[in-house]
Here is the input.
Amino acid sequence: MSKEDITREGIEFIRRLDEYGEVRDKLIVVKEALTDPAYGKLPTQRSVDELLDLGVVNLDKPPGPTSHEVVAWLKNILGIEKAGHGGTLERP
Here is the structure.
């Protein structure tokens, strides 16, 4: 994959995240640089196994179950041993 392809794919990934989060700010690229493959890759280039092993599952927990319960369900559904939550934010 060429530098231009990687840059284009990375910018498209960020644009899609911004669109999903309803961010209306314009993306400004200050500097383009390649990431050494030894240190990572774009999320769109990761396999499903890599995403599950190295990734984050962002979900909107419904009222009722505790965060601990949801983590237990997630571990059971995905068949993984380690998982946790980074906190809970309650909506007003």
